[in-house]
Amino acid sequence: MSDDTPQLPDFIQRFLAIQPGGMSHAGTLMACMIGVLAACAWMLGGLSMMISAGIAVAMMLALTPMISPDILMKILRASPLPAKDYLAIHEMNHLLSDRAGLDHRPNLFILPGKGVNAITTGTDDHTTIAISSDALHNLSPRQMRAILAHEVAHAWHGDTRILLITDVLYRATWTIALFGLAIFIFGDFNPPAWMIVVFGAVPTISFLLQRAVIRDREFAADHGASDLLNGPEDMIDALLHIDQINRTRLRIIPYRSTQPPSLLDTHPSVTARIKALRALKPGTWQKFFENRKMPEQ
């Protein structure tokens, strides 16, 4: 995917995590999502609507269960990664999980299909990492360890919870905006034109902010992998190799013939991710082993 987005100033590209911006700012992006939701609710019904929206979001977060990893693995037709056939990968998973201080080691699954891919889902003792068949058979041990480190970093950072929160915020914003437009169109209220435009735009704004959070967490997971591996070199090598494999393996799939715009993509470009990794200063990852209490052997 091309990194050329001349219509966006550099600081906006960094804010929206299209390009690396140094420190993770997922909290700021999520605060913006909350602000968009609050503004939308306030325009629709004032302070009382804002309070109602806040209560609704809190209830959704409390009552909306995260999809079970077992169900997701069945949907993806993934199967458990047999330890007897992939002992080294299970040992890598054990070591990396211990280094990250995870209370529970993630379960490992294998994904069918073409292309190098890996996903992390679930939380705590239900955390699951699924790795594609192409990754298992086309990556070197060091490259595989880097991919595992990236996925373990997602679990380490609690990214599945963060993405659940952003999903609820986006859905709540979409619901309020749709409700507002329905009132404007079918009700007796005659709003100014700018308000109709705003209510039509806020779902897109919230969606773009949600995508930016996801990209920000990808940059953070790369940084976390660098922490776990005591340097970014293996992660950089893995990203370059994966990009080559996927360009070859996925070029026959129609929807891959044109890449989505950077604003809509869930991952930063490989070029941007490597740029961020190369920008890491040694002190940002060497202290990991000084501060992290290693498990007793």
UniProtKB/TrEMBL annotation:
Subcellular location: Cell membrane
Chief site of localization: membrane
GO molecular function: metal ion binding; metalloendopeptidase activity
Domain Peptidase M48: 89-280
A single GO cellular-component term on record: plasma membrane
Entry's Gene Ontology BP terms: proteolysis
Membrane spanning stretches: 23-44, 50-67, 168-186, 192-209
Pfam family, one: Peptidase_M48
Keyword match Metal-binding: yes
UniProt-listed InterPro entries: HtpX_protease (IPR050083), Peptidase_M48 (IPR001915)
Cofactor dependency: Zn(2+)
Chaperone in keyword set: no
Membrane topology: Multi-pass membrane protein
Cofactor: how bound: Binds 1 zinc ion per subunit.
Keywords from the UniProt entry: Cell membrane, Hydrolase, Membrane, Metal-binding, Metalloprotease, Protease, Transmembrane, Transmembrane helix, Zinc
Superkingdom in the source lineage: Bacteria
Family: Belongs to the peptidase M48 family.
Protein name: Peptidase M48
